[in-house]
Automatic annotation (TrEMBL):
<feature type="transmembrane region" description="Helical">
    <location>
        <begin position="419"/>
        <end position="438"/>
    </location>
</feature>
<feature type="transmembrane region" description="Helical">
    <location>
        <begin position="38"/>
        <end position="57"/>
    </location>
</feature>
<feature type="transmembrane region" description="Helical">
    <location>
        <begin position="324"/>
        <end position="347"/>
    </location>
</feature>
<protein>
    <submittedName>
        <fullName>Gamma-aminobutyrate permease-like transporter</fullName>
    </submittedName>
</protein>
<feature type="transmembrane region" description="Helical">
    <location>
        <begin position="394"/>
        <end position="413"/>
    </location>
</feature>
<feature type="transmembrane region" description="Helical">
    <location>
        <begin position="12"/>
        <end position="32"/>
    </location>
</feature>
<dbReference type="GO" id="GO:0016020">
    <property type="term" value="C:membrane"/>
</dbReference>
<feature type="transmembrane region" description="Helical">
    <location>
        <begin position="148"/>
        <end position="171"/>
    </location>
</feature>
<feature type="transmembrane region" description="Helical">
    <location>
        <begin position="232"/>
        <end position="254"/>
    </location>
</feature>
<keyword id="KW-0472">Membrane</keyword>
<keyword id="KW-0813">Transport</keyword>
<dbReference type="Pfam" id="PF00324">
    <property type="entry name" value="AA_permease"/>
</dbReference>
<feature type="transmembrane region" description="Helical">
    <location>
        <begin position="353"/>
        <end position="374"/>
    </location>
</feature>
<feature type="transmembrane region" description="Helical">
    <location>
        <begin position="77"/>
        <end position="98"/>
    </location>
</feature>
<dbReference type="GO" id="GO:0006865">
    <property type="term" value="P:amino acid transport"/>
</dbReference>
<keyword id="KW-0029">Amino-acid transport</keyword>
<feature type="transmembrane region" description="Helical">
    <location>
        <begin position="279"/>
        <end position="304"/>
    </location>
</feature>
């Protein structure tokens, strides 16, 4: 399948599908209980971080649209260690994300079929996503567009219900209003520690911009469409995330929100719509499946790129007639089947274990992307001195790197998130060890 198959609208919807997952609908409750109403600021900071990473990516894509995207830029700007680290770290993060989302999908489905073992749904959804990715880029784009549309409509409905409830359309209550932002312990009831403790959970719903980078090369005009898609995706998600969270907190006191279910289900109860819990459960299930589908596409593409760049065996570059890197897809699928095994062995704890390991790896890779941009910008300016690449950053990327580092370090103060930090550091050391070993054995030249 050749370049030029995705429209700018499909790229936007793929981006929304890759970013808007179960993390927003579920993790928002954890973030709210950790921080209190100041969580609104958490989401604003997270939106800023995401916009800066996305800006850096789109600038490099405009300069040089290429399969493999940020991994290729990291190799050019930072050398072999940059290409190796960026590619394998993102692949690992993507596998974690897929495992997390497929497990979440299974948990949501058990809401309707409580007696069915978790691993059966994990297996079925794994096969479904592998099948979708085997169909090729064009079908992938169409399916992601449909899934994303469902989630977009759901977010608009949440905002609409929130606005109508706030104005007294569904219920008239003196307990609803701006006082909920300060009446229950203040705007920041848990202080700075609570704010920092909620940063990871507020940033996770913004993760996934790399899917757009991987998909942009398949559009009709990557250099034109990528900046357009970035602007729409950042504006859309930032506005709806912050608006929906703010409305939620104005209507329901932060200390009444449960961490065991999506807080938006409680918001939608005000509508008195029959089966609203099942409807919302379906939406969250769709969100999880779409994110998993987008992650599978992205990790397959980056593994294919690693094979092209000498950092993985060349057989991973073999494609089918539908332009699908078949062996890269099959190797990436191993992560899903590990999730099947874990869901069989540890059905009660598997989601928390997998998710806690995702955030650190994913956002450390954002640091690599930003550092790549810092080193890559002189290359862009030297070869294209009159292009838009000479424009200044929105903000110095070092500030964004510092914010991400603070977010990752803040997980040490939250016991349930600490395992992700420790596991992430261990993973970085493993990848570094593999790089050193591959260098000594001269595998890069043999591959």
């Amino acid at each position: 399948m050749e370049k030029g198959e995705l429209s700018v609208n499909e790229l936007v919807l793929i981006g929304v599908g890759g970013i808007l997952g179960a993390g927003f609908f579920l993790a928002s409750g954890i973030a709210i209980r950790t921080a209190g109403p100041i969580v609104i600021l958490n989401y604003a900071v997270s939106a800023f971080i995401m916009s800066q990473v996305f800006y850096a990516l789109s600038q490099m894509i405009v300069y040089k649209p290429v399969e493999g995207s940020f991994r290729v830029y990291a190799e050019e700007a930072l050398g072999d260690i940059g290409g190796f680290f960026s590619g394998w770290l993102y692949w690992t993060a993507g596998v974690f994300i897929m495992s997390s989302e497929v497990t979440a999908s299974a948990i949501f489905t058990k809401y309707w079929f409580p007696k069915t073992p978790l691993w059966i749904f994990v297996l079925l959804y794994s096969i479904l996503v592998i099948g979708i990715n085997l169909m090729g880029t064009k079908n992938f784009g169409q399916i992601e567009s449909w899934f994303s549309t469902i989630k977009i409509v759901a977010l608009f409905i949440i905002v609409l219900v929130g606005l109508l409830t706030l104005t007294g359309f569904f219920v008239k209550s003196s307990a609803i209003g701006i006082k909920n932002l300060y009446a229950h312990g203040g705007f920041a009831p848990h202080g700075v520690k609570g704010f920092l403790g909620a940063m990871l959970m507020s940033l996770i719903p913004f993760g996934g911009v790399e899917v757009v980078a991987m998909s942009s090369v398949k559009t009709k005009n990557p250099q034109k469409y990528t900046p357009i898609a970035r602007k729409y995706i950042v504006l859309f998600l930032t506005t709806l995330y912050i608006l929906s969270i703010t409305l939620l907190l104005l209507i329901i006191p932060w200390n009444h929100i449960s961490i065991k279910e999506s807080p938006f289900i409680k918001l939608l109860y005000f509508t008195k719509i029959p089966f609203i819990d099942s409807i919302m459960n379906f939406v969250i299930l769709t969100a999880a499946l779409t994110t998993m589908n987008g992650a599978m596409y992205a990790v397959t593409q980056v593994l294919y790129s690693l094979g092209q760049g000498r950092f993985a065996p060349t057989f991973l570059t073999k494609k089918t007639k539908r332009d699908v890197p078949i062996y890269a897809l099959l190797l990436s699928s191993l992560g899903l089947f590990i999730a099947v095994i874990l869901s069989y062995v540890l059905p009660k704890d598997v989601y928390e274990y997998i998710t806690s390991a995702t955030g650190f790896v994913q956002f450390f890779n954002w640091i690599i992307i930003l550092y790549t941009f810092i080193k890559y910008k002189p290359i862009m300016e030297e070869k294209s001195p009159n292009s838009d690449n000479r424009s200044q950053y929105f903000v110095n990327p070092w500030i964004t790197i510092a914010l991400i580092a603070i977010t990752l370090l803040s997980t040490l103060f939250v016991p349930k998130q600490r395992i992700g930090f420790i596991g992430g550091i261990a993973l970085l050391l493993i990848i570094l060890t593999l790089y050193i070993a591959a260098k000594k054995l001269e595998l890069f030249d043999k591959w």
